[in-house]
Every structure is written in structure tokens, then in C-alpha cells.
Amino acid sequence: MTRKKIGILGASGYTGSDAVRLLARHPNAEITALTANTHAGKTMSEVFPHFFMLDLPKLVEWEKVDWTRLDAVFCGLPHGTTQEIIAAVLKANPGIKILDMSADFRLRDKDSYAQWYGHEHRAFELQGEAVYGLTELYREKITAARLVACPGCYPTAVLLALVPLAKAKLIDVDDIIIDAKSGVTGAGRGLKQNTLFSEAGEGLSPYSIGSHRHSAEIEQEIGAAAGSAVTVNFTPHLIPMARGEFCTSYVKLNGATPDDLRAELEKAYANEPFVYVTKKGVLPQTQNVRGSNYVQIGVVADRIENRAIVLSTLDNLVKGSAGQAIQNMNLMFGLPETTGLEQIALFP
């Protein structure tokens, strides 16, 4: 197959740079356009010195890219700035494939989007065709899509752990508590006081308690699986490591046992290349998936009768963002789904 010409919007951010890292060694991809308006004119290695060995195009303003020459574009821009740019890209090249790693097309309801993101959607005419890009749940739709809204990192970890259980009616979806922790790259690359080493190091901090925007995605997808509206208790925390994510979900059982939950997850992911359910007594750990596109899920019986604890971990920049986007790109171009994504975790 001819190598696909790829552009990356927002290549100077963490998700954009991880897309570059992974695509640079993808056998069917050629990175031909990189945008970063604030760093326009610089080489990628000036912004990210670890790319010193790669021959990459210079960073440019997005308006200067000839989108008609590209086959696909990955978008790593912040929410709110993405909608109009993607609309402009699709107008210039209606046949291009869009892998959006922002939040702008994840929510299907425009009122819900306005509620959680503080403004009306600026390209809602495209929302109807956007496919929620959780690969394991929407593989067939992703394969035929032009615009894929790749999930947030927290929703990916939570939904892979809970959707099969909600769909099978094994848990009470009205009683879900999610304790989530993410490395500081989840907060982006911009300068923020709470992510300075002296502020974030040697500490653990909750944030956006009861109001984190990823709650909307989690509720949307668990609700779709359960067939009813769902509200979850979701609390994220910033943990002092660069990358990685761990979600602990506390659930009430619907006449099932923790072993039933594990069996259902094993059945759901038996043929999935990147999702692994641990054996009884084996606990997932962030270091088992760091730098990889793999997910680990485990189930433990709670001390409280009729409850269980479901554990899930992934790398927030890979399976939680750029890696999953590439997995979806592979599907959209008819490539083997695992192409360019079989890196083993970095350990230690």
C-alpha cells in the first residue's frame, strides 16, 4: 500500500508529539505537515529535542497547509479551537480522514456540549457524522467514518472496564464511583502553576471534583450500553509522574459475583489485541503499560457485600490519545489494526 500522507494539527502539544513519535515508525504513514501556530518556523527537534534523529517537516501555521495533498489529519488542538479548523479542512478536502483527539466532537447532544464546555458548538453540522472513537466498541462504524472523535484518556480506561458489565446488566449503573489518577501530561504542555515540579512533585491532588468534563463522555457511553440515563461519581487526581493513568471503579452487583464480572470482561476482550484482563489475584499497574497501546483490567471482590472493585490502567498519551487515534486510522485505511502500535511497555 502507498504510504498515507499525514498532517498533525497542534504538533507542539503532548498528544501531537506522541502522534509524531508513533507515526514516524509507522510503515504505511508519511508525516508531511506539522502545525503549531505559536512555534511556526521552528523544526520539531527545537520544540521536542528527542526527535533529533528524524527528518520532519517544519512547523507551520495551520492556514498555510495544502490540505488537498493529505490523506489524514490528526488534531491535537485544545477543545473549542478545533471545530472551525476541522470544518475548514474538510471544506478544502472532503475526502480527508480526520482523527480528532480533542473533545469537540465526542458528545452527541449539542446542549450537553454547551453545558460542559461553556459555549455553543461551532460546527454542529459535522457532529452527526462523527463516530466516537473507542475502537473496541465502535470498530465497524470507525472503519467507514470520515471524522472520528477519539475519546478522552479517562473515559477510555473507565469505559473499557465498565461498558461490557453495564451491557450485560451485571452492575447497577446508578451506583458507580470512579476514583481516577493521571500523570501530569494529562494537563497539557502549557505553563500552569499546579504542574510545576515543585508544586506537583511528592504530592497527590484532586481537581475538577464533581465537574470534570470527561464525566459527560462516561455517562453518555455507559448510558448507551445500559439503555438508560446514567450519572456517575467521578473524581480525577493529578499524580506526580509524567504519563500513565489508573482508574478504580467501585460498583454494586446485580445478582452477580466478582468472578462473573471477570468472566464477562474476558469474553468481551478475548479477541482484542490491546485489552488484557488480568487473572484473579493479579492487579493491573501503570508500569505494565507505560509507553504502549495496551490496557490492563482487573476485578477484585470488595469487603462490602454485593460490591466489587474494577481496576483499569493505560498510558494516557498512547491508548488514551495518540495510540488509539492511530489504531482508528489503521481501520479507516483498511490496514491491520495493530500496525505501528505493538511496542512493549517501557519498564523499568
Short description:
This protein has helices at 14-23, 44-47, 82-92, 110-117, 124-127, 135-143, 153-167, 197-200, 214-226, 258-268, 318-332, and strands at 4-9, 29-35, 59-60, 72-75, 97-100, 131-132, 147-149, 171-182, 205-206, 233-238, 245-253, 275-277, 295-301, 307-314. The chain has 348 residues and is an alpha/beta fold.
Describe this structure in words.
By secondary structure, the protein is an alpha/beta fold. It has 2 domains: 126 residues, Rossmann fold (3-Layer(aba) Sandwich), CATH 3.40.50; 164 residues, Dihydrodipicolinate Reductase, domain 2. The protein contains 11 helices and 14 strands. Helix 1 packs across helix 11, helix 6 packs parallel to helix 11 and helix 7 runs parallel beside helix 9. The model has no long low-confidence stretch (mean pLDDT 96).
Rough outline: globular
Order of helices and strands: EHEHEEHEHHEHEHEHEHEEHEEEH
Tell me how many strands there are: 14
Secondary structural class: alpha/beta
User: Roughly how many Å is the radius of gyration?
Assistant: 20 Å
The appropriate CATH architecture of the largest domain is 2-Layer Sandwich
Looking at how many chains there are and whether they match, the oligomeric state comes to single chain
Helix content: 25-40%
Question: What is the residue-mean pLDDT, rounded to a whole number?
Answer: 96
Question: Could you name the CATH topology of the largest domain?
Answer: Dihydrodipicolinate Reductase, domain 2
